[in-house]
Amino acid sequence: MSNTFKGVSNMEILEIIKDAFIFPTNNLEKLAIYIVLTFVVGLLMGGGVILAAFSTMDASYLAIIGAILLILGIILALIISGYQLGIMKSGIDLDDEAPSFDWKNDLINGIKLLVVSIVYFIIPAIIVLIVGLITNVPGNVVNLINEAAVTPANATAMANSTGISLDAVSQSTMAAFGTSIAITALVAFVVFIIFAFIQTMGQARLANTGSLGEALNIPEAAKDLTRIGIGKVIAVILLVVIIVAVINAILGYLYGQVSQLSILSIIVTPYLAFFTQRASGLLYSDIA
């Protein structure tokens, strides 16, 4: 095992990106297992949905089998999610070797990670809901619908339907609706972005300590951003997002030209998962 950056604090941004991108190639055996597992999850989920869709009263056993496959798929997906936390931990520890699969521990970590994701989603969602209520989005929507409802003049048509026309909506109603939606959307964008960064720190805290309490300590997770350096966190995460987006865009174009190449996604998606989790771990290693 080599520890290229062991003992080196405050890794530079490009060092993090380079190390994270090369990391999967140094752990091909673990990557291969991960690829197989993600493929199996796809088969289980897809098979479960298909069997449930084609089940009937006369073939209710298909629904049961489909439900079993979906449950197995969810369990395996949680194991994979927990393993991703292990990859992040390898970055935090500056360990060049990916962790071995530990089914029980990975499942537990996957469940913990799911809880963290839910909590870090619910809080900004509640904030946005409150802003929406303050700006009266529901009331403005109702007003717009009421004014847009045009009752047909023909008696027969009146009995059968009601038309909708935005031309009947007053400018003041449209202005109020547009303003409330714009403000709420802007707040939603900002709040969800902020919590996405804080959630990354929360996940890193979970990977580093294994403690759900530490991961859900939102004030401390927010402080971790400043401890590492907000500029550095933004730069690393932004670079990771750009690299993933560019690779997916290029592959999307290739898939459009040669549909058979879409099979590459079976390899590329797990590779990028290793890359992103490793980068987050290396970023957090500055303060671990």
Structure notes:
The protein has 288 residues and is an all-alpha fold. It has a domain at 13-114 and 193-284. It has eleven helices and two strands, in the order αααααβαβααααα. It has helices spanning 13-22, 28-54, 60-92, 103-134, 137-148, 155-160, 171-209, 212-215, 218-228, 230-257, 265-284, and strands at 149-150, 163-164. The protein has a two-stranded antiparallel sheet. Residues 1-9 and 151-162 have low confidence and may be disordered.
Question: In short, what is this structure?
Answer:
The protein is an all-alpha fold. It contains 11 helices and 2 strands; from the N terminus they run αααααβαβααααα. The chain has a domain at 13-114 and 193-284.
Number of helices: 11
Give me the side-by-side strand order of the main sheet.
1-2
- Mass-distribution shape: globular
Low-confidence stretches: 1-9, 151-162
Q: Which class do the helix and strand fractions yield? A: mainly alpha
Helicity, in percent?
over 70%
How do the strands and helices of this protein lay out in sequence?
Blueprint: H1 13-22, H2 28-54, H3 60-92, H4 103-134, H5 137-148, E1 149-150, H6 155-160, E2 163-164, H7 171-209, H8 212-215, H9 218-228, H10 230-257, H11 265-284
Antiparallel strand pairs: 1-2
Entry keywords:
288 residues; mainly alpha; 1% strand; disordered N terminus
